[in-house]
Structures are given as structure tokens and as C-alpha cells.
Design a protein that fits this description.
The chain is an alpha/beta fold and 456 residues long. It folds into 2 domains: 64 residues; 261 residues, Type I PLP-dependent aspartate aminotransferase-like (Major domain) (Aspartate Aminotransferase, domain 2, 3-Layer(aba) Sandwich), CATH 3.40.640. Helix content is 41%, strand content 12%. Helix 1 packs parallel to helix 3, helix 6 crosses helix 8 and helix 6 crosses helix 11.
Length: 456
């Protein structure tokens, strides 16, 4: 018997059982911290153990602490599931164990990412010829996009960041909406630009950047404008086309944080919400959100491939660099050696096709609307703001404490799982519908559980 078969069969047996049980599985974790430390902790064994027994024990002991975030009734944060084709491709990715950094050590990985990047750019309405990088998630996609932006806008001002760094550089203003995601601030900290570079732009009551406020704040000098497609609370999308026009009039770079909202471009019904998105200079999004591939899978696109490569690329005598069109992935992201993330993205796109991606996005949005309508019909909660995409904000009328108590009860109940947030100074329960497998029955079952758990 192959040395691989016994241990991989054990893993497959558990994995398929877990996936088959997802429709009825408790969504939240069923174990305490102390219980998990008791079963998964302890001292490192002095002697090695049988690999099959190790996997069996790992599955048995970890299972109570697994949050069923792939469940059709998981609505916390913005987390998709994993489609069958994407998950199977991810298994192959582990078996092949390719280092995707250089073409020479992962030719198939390189070509698959080149192809998937081109397909995605077309699907998302981006200009032909944009460069694409496969990163861990929107955090590193925003990091990469802002790194390229800093190098480019300072280069235009006569400052070579690659050689001279940021010490003594002309100040760069980063104009971003009040409702921006925290990954923008964190990326600027990582880059050494600091959050003090941010100029906050006023937003409307739905969380969209106000173009009039942006116009008033724009000035001469190196600048980056961060537009957002998909406010993490309301789902609202900035008027990206108008933002691009205003920013480019003053020579600013436009970076789009489209972690989930950029996928609206894949839907003919929703595409108007991102009109003008192709005018931007860089775009960040996640495949592990609305494309439903396994973690981790983020994407960065850039309309200036030369600037992208100049910022992120690496050269060394010991490396064998691609030639004659061979694509080295390390030229497009911050990692040197990394997992071949593109295989799962490629498989997901082929299995879904253009129509399937559009249907996935449209269904999630329709189910979010169903959530809002049915919860509002109970008369026991209020829906805050409009349901623009897949996000729903729910509040128990009255004190914040009642809303927070409801969130805690829902999470402990296990029928479904939602997270909490603060929106416009009020506590709210945030529902995000991002999973390909979520059904109307999942929504109705979840609504019934929520209504039954409302305090008072």
C-alpha cells in the first residue's frame, strides 16, 4: 500500500463526512477554550506517532472547535464557503506543493494564474492588460496597491522610493472615506506612511463617499484617493467613476478597495453600481469572499503593470528569473515563496462560468433582501439603512444592550451565526450573505431562530 493512501484516506473520510453534515451542523463552536487546550495541547511527543492516527486524533479533537463558516447558515463577517471544484483544486494544490513564486519551479501554477487573472479582469470590468497578483486577502491586496501607488505618485514628484525610502520624501495625502475598512489604515502603517497621512472624506448616511467633499479636499501634490466598493456594514458602494474623474483631474492615483463589492461588476443586474470602475489605477478584492474559494485568496490588479513590477519585483543572482513571457509571481505581490493559490481560483471560474458567478452574486443579494423583509415583518426589530448588496443591519429598538444580547443569544444557539458591529453610533447585528450554498430555507430557518431569541 502507498505510504500516502492510509493517511489521505483518513483525511478524506473525515472531510467528506464534515461537508455532508454541514446543512444540519451547529454553526458556532461547541467547545470552550479550556476543553480545546485539554485535547489539543500538552507536551510535544518524544517519539513520532502513526500519521493516520495523528490525523484521526486531530479531526476528533479539533471538530468541536470548528466554526462551520462554510455552512449555508453562517452569516458572520463577509465569508464565503468553498465550491466543490475550488475545494478539490485546493486539495490538488497541497498535493502538488508548488512554490508559485517563480515560473521555473511552478510553470503550470504560473500559467494558471496568468489565465485566471485575465479572466477575472474581464469578468470584473477592468481594462485589458492589467497586471494581477494573488495574495492572502484584501489586507495584502490593499497593502500592495498602496505600495505601488506610493512609489508611483512620489516618482512623479521626482522621489525614488525604492532607493531613498520615505524618510524626507514629499508628503503624500491619502484621501479616504470616513467609512473605509481598517485594512487601509493598517496597510499605511505597514508601509511606513502612517495613518496621519489620511484625509477623511465625509460620507452620506449609507456610507458612500461624497464627491463634493472629495472635490473640496483635493489639492496639488502627491495624492492617493481610496474608493470603496462595499461598505463592510451597509454594503454601500462609492460613486467610483465620479471619484476617478475628480482625482485624475488633480493627478491623484485611485485605489479601489473592492474586497466584496467589486464582484457586483460580474452581475449584469448590479453592474451599474460600479460604473466607471475601469478608470481607477489599482483594485483590491477577495476570491475567498464572493468567488467562494478556500482561504486564503486575495487579488490585486493594477492598470500600470510596469509600476506594479517595479514596486514588488525582486532580482538576485541565485534566482532563475522568467524569460520570453514567462511570468514570475513574485513580481506582483509581497511574498517570495508562496502557495499556488491560482489553481482554486481557476477551477472555481471554470466550474461556474460567467453566468454562474453572476447568479451566485445575484442569489446572495436576493437572499439578503429576504432576510431584511422577513425580519422587519416580525415587528420586533428594525433594519438600518438600505440593503444594497448582501449586507443587512439589524437592531432591536431601544438600548444597545438588547441588540448585543440578541447577537450573543444567536451565536450561542447555533442555528446560525452573525457578528455584531457599531453603525452610526448604534449597536447592530450584521448579516452577510456570501455563501453559494445558502438557500431560502436557510434564511427562513435563521429568521425564525432570531425572532425567537429577541430579548423581552
Amino acid at each position: 500500500m502507498s505510504q500516502w493512501k492510509e493517511v489521505l484516506d483518513e483525511a478524506a473520510r473525515y472531510a467528506t463526512g464534515y461537508l455532508d453534515d454541514l446543512p444540519e451542523r451547529r454553526v458556532g463552536s461547541g467547545a470552550t477554550l479550556a476543553e480545546l487546550r485539554e485535547t489539543l495541547g500538552g507536551k510535544l511527543p518524544e517519539q513520532g506517532e502513526n500519521p493516520r492516527e495523528v490525523i484521526a486524533a486531530l479531526a476528533r479533537h479539533a471538530d468541536p472547535g470548528i466554526v462551520a463558516s462554510s455552512s449555508g447558515r453562517f452569516f458572520g463577517f463577509v465569508i464565503g464557503g468553498a465550491t466543490p471544484a475550488a475545494l478539490a483544486a485546493d486539495w490538488l494544490t497541497s498535493a502538488w506543493d508548488q512554490n508559485a513564486g517563480l515560473y521555473v519551479i511552478g510553470p503550470a501554477a504560473s500559467v494558471v494564474e496568468e489565465t485566471a487573472g485575465r479572466w477575472l479582469a474581464d469578468l470584473l470590468g477592468l481594462p485589458a492588460g492589467v497586471s494581477a497578483g494573488f495574495v492572502t486577502g484584501a489586507q495584502m491586496a490593499n497593502f500592495t496597491g498602496l505600495a505601488v501607488a506610493l512609489h508611483e505618485v512620489l516618482g512623479r514628484a521626482g522621489w525614488d522610493v525604492a532607493e531613498r525610502g520615505l524618510w524626507g520624501a514629499p508628503p503624500v495625502r491619502v484621501l479616504a472615506g470616513q467609512g473605509r475598512h481598517g485594512t487601509i489604515d493598517r496597510a499605511l502603517r505597514f508601509l511606513g506612511a502612517g495613518t496621519g497621512a489620511i484625509v477623511e472624506i465625509e460620507m452620506d448616511d449609507q456610507g458612500r463617499m461624497l464627491p463634493s467633499a472629495l472635490r473640496a479636499a483635493l489639492a496639488d501634490g502627491p495624492a492617493i484617493v481610496c474608493a470603496q466598493l462595499g461598505n463592510v456594514n451597509s454594503g454601500a458602494l462609492d460613486p467610483v467613476g465620479e471619484i476617478c474623474d475628480l482625482a485624475h483631474e488633480r493627478g491623484a492615483w485611485v485605489h479601489v478597495d473592492g474586497a466584496f463589492g467589486l464582484w457586483a461588476a460580474a452581475s449584469p443586474r448590479l453592474r451599474g453600481l460600479v460604473e466607471g470602475v475601469a478608470k481607477a489605477d489599482s483594485w483590491a478584492t477577495d476570491a475567498h469572499k464572493w468567488l467562494n474559494v478556500p482561504y486564503d485568496s486575495g487579488l490585486i490588479f493594477c492598470a500600470h503593470p510596469g509600476a506594479h513590477r517595479a514596486t514588488m519585483g525582486a532580482r538576485a543572482g541565485y534566482l532563475v528569473h522568467g524569460a520570453d513571457g514567462e511570468r514570475d509571481a513574485l513580481d506582483y505581490g509581497p511574498e517570495h515563496s508562496r502557495r499556488a493559490r491560482g489553481f482554486a481560483v481557476y477551477a472555481a471560474l471554470r466550474a461556474l462560468g460567467r453566468d454562474g458567478v453572476a447568479d451566485l452574486v445575484d442569489r446572495c443579494c436576493a437572499l439578503a433582501t429576504r432576510f431584511a423583509e422577513r425580519l422587519a415583518a416580525s415587528g420586533k426589530v428594525e433594519i438600518l439603512g438600505d440593503v444594497v448588496l448582501n449586507q443587512v443591519l439589524v437592531r432591536v429598538p431601544g438600548e444597545d444592550a438588547s441588540t448585543r444580547e440578541l447577537i450573543d443569544r444567536v451565536q450561542r444557539d447555533g442555528t446560525c451565526w452573525m457578528s455584531g458591529t457599531t453603525w452610526q453610533g448604534q449597536a447592530a447585528m450584521r448579516i452577510s450573505v456570501s455563501n453559494w450554498s445558502t438557500t431560502e430555507e436557510d434564511v427562513d430557518r435563521s429568521v425564525a431562530a432570531i425572532v425567537s431569541l429577541i430579548p423581552g
